[in-house]
Amino acid sequence: MKLISAGAAETVTGSCHLLEINGLKVLIDCGLFQGGKKVEAKNYEDFPFNASEIDIVLLTHGHLDHIGRLPILLKSGYSGDILATNSTNHIAEVILKDSAKIQQEDYKRNIRKAQRKGKEGKIKDPLYTLDDIPAVLSSLKRIEFNENINLGNKVVAKFRPSGHILGSAFIEIDSPEGKIIFSGDLGNYESSLQADAKPPNEADIVVIETTYGNRNHRSMEATEAEFRELLEQAIKNQGTIMIPSFALERTQVILHQILKQQQAGRIGKLPIFLDSPMATKFTKLYQACANEFIEPIKLELQKGIDPFEPNVLEYTVTAEQSKAINHMKGLTIIIAGSGMMSGGRITHHLKHNLWRKNACLIVVGYQASGSLGRLLVDGRKKVKIHGETITVNAEIKTIGGFSAHADKDDLLKWISSTGNAKAYLVHGEPKVMKHFKQSLNSRGRQAEIVKWGREYQLNQ
């Protein structure tokens, strides 16, 4: 068995891992790098393998940093099937079309700016366009959780629930050469929506994510109390409450949390805008997927109760509706993408409100190094948005307990079921990986931090 990683190696995004096993070449995920310019420049680099030689692609879930380079993979010569769960198939279509659309829009805007400066030759083409997406969608094949899938050459894969987002899975791969497990992204065991990840079976090798491998989340009880207090204080200030949120999973968690506060009588009816066409689509998908949730959410959906729609929620789909929000006065809650504030509609709301002293920015998701979100969380007093310098007077608050990712204890609990499997660490920042490696070593487990493009012989 051999492993080569073309992403999420000493960084959090861009998951992409090529496994050679018993004569087959199997690619696990093919995600986009996200964050600052330096990180995103990696999307334009060649893969450290020949795409046309890959036999099959398996997707752990539908987040952009796990599927966003699929169109590039096909343009590079891959022509086989892409296997994913039913929910991931639905999510992938929305995510990839949105990614292509944003790239095209960004390219047109950047070209116009460059032309005014006489520097249009320096603008890179989009990685792909909407015309490239149908080929990916036609390659997608739906599989079921816990189904044994014969990949050929006596290699069998099984997708098992990972508790991260809708459709998310860790993948167990059996072969005569040994057994390897790819964790994908594992879920928070205190998730307020998703059912817990299933315990994996014993294996020879585990490729495991380490996003929060050096720390634990606050308890869900403490997190909900903190969120309630922030809302109550922001409501007293009668300003705009901005919640940048990933369209998938985090938005639905926040909507459910606001509804819970209303049902408990802690906050009343107030204008709430879900300002994200993509989040709106995913919220509708969440309403149709009762079987993947924890029991209370499942029961509400089965009774016809919508757990993702607080009172006075308005879906703003068009650009005109989005712009109109910033002309409103008084208390308003705006939930908008992107989650890392690196683009999307949230940037327009930040531009209009960060300078206001009665505004509040509640950060509920991971902020990658170099992103606008990380700068704000780190206390930057002036930031550039759409080329304009904005003074930061708004209150900035961070809540980490809503994370859809496993924390350190969750990761250790999950991997404990794999026997003495050697761990290869991916999907994390270098200092976090070093900490998690030490934690595994102290428990008697071998662990290695994966580097981009390096070939690892797994069964020596």
Compute the separation of the termini in Å: 9 Å
| Average residue pLDDT | 92
**Any idea what the CATH superfamily of the largest domain is called?**
Ribonuclease Z/Hydroxyacylglutathione hydrolase-like
Dominant shape: globular
Counted beta strands:
22
Just name the CATH architecture of the largest domain: 4-Layer Sandwich
Helix content: 25-40%
Query: Which CATH class of the largest domain applies here?
Result: Alpha Beta
Strand order of the largest sheet: 6-5-4-3-2-1-22
Number of distinct helices: 14
> What fold name stands as the CATH topology of the largest domain?
Metallo-beta-lactamase, Chain A
> Which percent range describes the beta-strand content?
15-25%
Give the tally of structural domains.
2
Structural class: alpha/beta
Global Rg = 22 Å
Largest sheet: 7 strands, mixed
Low-pLDDT residue spans: none
Describe the structure.
- This protein is of the alpha/beta class and 460 residues long.
- The chain folds into two domains: 2-215 and 404-457, 4-Layer Sandwich (Metallo-beta-lactamase, Chain A); 220-398, Rossmann fold (3-Layer(aba) Sandwich), CATH 3.40.50.10890.
- It contains 14 helices and 22 strands.
- It has helices spanning 37-40, 64-67, 70-75, 86-117, 133-139, 220-237, 250-263, 277-286, 295-302, 319-325, 346-353, 372-377, 408-415, 430-442; strands at residues 2-5, 17-21, 24-28, 56-58, 82-85, 140-143, 149-152, 155-161, 169-175, 178-182, 205-209, 240-244, 272-275, 313-315, 332-336, 360-363, 382-385, 388-391, 395-398, 422-426, 447-449, 455-457.
- The strands form four sheets. A seven-stranded mixed beta sheet has the order 6-5-4-3-2-1-22.
- Strand 8 (155-161) and strand 9 (169-175) form a beta hairpin.
- Helix 4 (86-117) packs antiparallel against helix 8 (277-286).
- The longest helix has 32 residues, at 86-117.
- The model has no long low-confidence stretch (mean pLDDT 92).
